């Protein structure tokens, strides 16, 4: 299992691996928001939590189509499925690798981009906290979507259409935590909901992903 | 470990391709799978490897015993030869990749990226993967594609050594590898179209 994690991390950091793509996308989207809505700092600080959450979500989505498609194309997915490693473990590890190379950098970059959008000071902690808890769910749900569309020609677009609606609960509660945190309100309820969604997806979705993958490999 | 196949029927894309297939693969033996293109050799190997369920029949003794090599080699172009092999070795829980490198003369290429290898060298690396799996039953689908004559000999020697250690192999190939194994021609097991029964016939 560790071998698979290390291989996926290594592949992500090597040339053409796509590490940093999501991060660069997140940066560009955030920088472009003031161009679109105007430079009033009061308006920017109101919308900052929502914009940062949406940007992180879209950046996460960007790298999903490579998650399983590359392994499918070069045949290593077939070989993994016949290896002693259970497919459930393999998809969990791949989701973890995706989070480490895409989700975690977004979490770490978010406070710096918060400065660009004039995020109120109390909001920084809650923004990082909510992204830290919410992004693993995005990787796990994304892996499920990637398993559904693996082997399809131009499956990337379909993948986005399938996965985006599934991201809605995470987005609602995650952005709510960040928004409440920024305005100094209590954050416990949405934070617990967010954590609950993440815990449930991590517990259940790998089984669904593996089942779907077995059917897709036939 | 003997692989026993009884009365197997398999499908490709929902359409039955082979039926009534029975054979036994004993330790130390090789079976050469033959048959015209499209008859279902690849589908048979995928079914035996557990990638798809059979339509009918039983496969006994396959559980966690099979190492499968498909048409594609499953190599990562940005990893080196050593890294590719080491990955599969640790997935299968074996330690040494040196015998595999030796058997397919990959020592000189060990630090090259798999993406920079020629088609034949990639194939050799893909076949070397079989050695690091440590599994007794090899399923090989057209293993000699893009190999030169010398490399084919290398491959045949590797299979012979594997059989000598009590392993077995099922190989779909059209060339003569010089192995002493029986030939299984699946051409006669082509699935026949289902006879039209009265219910279907009513619509015709």
Automatic annotation (TrEMBL), chain A:
Q: Which residue ranges does UniProt annotate as crossing the membrane? A: 12-37, 43-64, 96-117, 123-150, 157-178, 190-213
Q: How does it sit in the membrane?
A: Multi-pass membrane protein
Instruction: List the InterPro entries hit by this protein, alphabetically.
Output: Cyt_c_biogenesis_CcmB, Cyt_c_CcmB_bac
What is the annotated signal peptide range for this record?
Answer: none
Highest taxon in the source lineage = Bacteria
What keywords sit in the KW lines?
Cell inner membrane, Cell membrane, Cytochrome c-type biogenesis, Membrane, Transmembrane, Transmembrane helix, Transport
- Where found in the cell? Cell inner membrane
As for family, the record states: Belongs to the CcmB/CycW/HelB family.
Its function, per the record, reads:
Required for the export of heme to the periplasm for the biogenesis of c-type cytochromes.
The protein here is known as: Heme exporter protein B
From TrEMBL, chain B:
GO molecular function list:
ATP binding
A Pfam short name: ABC_tran
> Keywords, A to Z?
ATP-binding, Cytochrome c-type biogenesis, Membrane, Nucleotide-binding, Translocase, Transport
Residue stretches making up the ABC transporter domain: 3-204
* Top-level division of the source organism's lineage: Bacteria
Per the UniProt entry, the signal peptide is none
Which PROSITE patterns is this protein grouped with?
ABC_TRANSPORTER_1, ABC_TRANSPORTER_2
The record's listing under PANTHER family reads: ABC TRANSPORTER I FAMILY MEMBER 1 (PTHR43499:SF1)
Give the protein's recorded name. Answer: Heme ABC exporter ATP-binding protein CcmA
Source organism per UniProt? Ruegeria haliotis
Q: List the lineage, top down.
A: Bacteria, Pseudomonadati, Pseudomonadota, Alphaproteobacteria, Rhodobacterales
């Amino acid at each position: 299992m560790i071998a698979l994690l290390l291989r996926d991390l290594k592949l992500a950091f090597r040339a053409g691996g796509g590490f940093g793509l999501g991060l660069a996308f997140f940066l560009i989207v955030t920088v472009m928001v003031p161009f679109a809505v105007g430079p009033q700092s009061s308006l920017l600080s109101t919308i900052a939590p929502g914009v940062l959450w949406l940007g992180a979500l879209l950046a996460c989505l960007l790298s999903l189509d490579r998650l399983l498609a590359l392994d499918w194309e070069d045949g290593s997915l077939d070989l993994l499925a016949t290896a002693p490693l259970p497919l459930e473990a393999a998809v969990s590890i791949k989701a973890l690798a995706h989070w480490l190379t895409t989700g975690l950098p977004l979490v770490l970059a978010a406070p710096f981009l918060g400065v660009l959008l004039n995020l109120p000071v109390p909001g920084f902690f809650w923004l990082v906290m909510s992204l830290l808890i919410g992004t693993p769910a995005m990787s796990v749900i994304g892996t499920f979507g990637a398993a559904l569309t693996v082997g399809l020609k131009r499956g990337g677009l379909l993948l986005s259409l399938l996965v985006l609606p599934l991201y809605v609960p995470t987005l609602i509660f995650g952005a709510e935590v960040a928004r409440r945190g920024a305005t100094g309100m209590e954050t416990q309820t949405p934070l617990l909901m967010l954590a609950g969604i993440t815990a449930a997806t991590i517990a259940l979705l790998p089984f669904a992903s593996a089942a779907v993958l077995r059917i897709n490999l036939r | 470990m003997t692989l026993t196949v009884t009365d197997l029927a398999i499908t490709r894309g929902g359409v039955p391709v082979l039926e009534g297939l029975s054979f036994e693969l004993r330790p130390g033996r090789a079976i050469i799978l033959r048959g015209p293109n499209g008859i279902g050799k690849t589908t048979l190997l995928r079914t035996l490897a557990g990638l798809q369920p059979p339509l009918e029949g039983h496969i006994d003794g396959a559980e966690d015993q099979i190492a499968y090599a498909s048409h594609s080699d499953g190599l990562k172009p940005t990893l080196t030869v050593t890294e590719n092999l080491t990955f599969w070795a640790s997935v299968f829980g074996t330690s040494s990749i040196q015998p595999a490198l030796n058997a397919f003369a990959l020592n000189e290429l060990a630090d090259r990226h798999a993406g920079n290898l020629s088609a034949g060298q990639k194939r050799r690396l893909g076949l070397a993967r079989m050695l690091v799996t440590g599994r007794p039953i090899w399923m090989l689908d057209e293993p000699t594609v893009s190999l030169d004559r010398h490399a084919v000999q290398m491959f045949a020697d590797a299979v012979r050594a594997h059989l000598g250690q009590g392993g077995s192999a099922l190989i779909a190939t059209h060339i003569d590898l010089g192995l002493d194994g029986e030939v299984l021609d699946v051409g006669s097991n082509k699935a026949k179209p289902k006879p039209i029964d009265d219910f279907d016939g009513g619509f015709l």
